[in-house]
Amino acid sequence: MTSPTQPAPAPSRVCFQLRVKPDLLDEYLRRHSPVWPEMLAEIAAAGRRNYSLFLGEGGQLIGYYETDDDAAARAYLAASPIAARWEAEMSRFFVGLEGRPDQAAAPLTEVFNLHDQLTESTPS
Fold it and tell me: One GO BP annotation here (predicted)?
């Protein structure tokens, strides 16, 4: 817990990239409209928020979410039977992916964040 004089730590921003098989794009989109309610609840219970997926040319998929503890969120979902079932169904959609999509997608390195730089450049 933080004291009134200590600000809460900034959430981690996590971005990842996967590639959806072009011949399965339509089905992939149908599966996300909507996502199972119990899977949505597990994502939230894991501590992920502001979670979005963006689809680009050729099946390029970019995911983004924020969390206070990404290792804990990943561990929670890794142990979740609901997430395991969802990911087992979703794994066939991705090119060159071994294992569960949520666990196998490597985070991208953040190189710029407007809010952080504005905050750092503002005198106290």
Answer: rhamnose catabolic process
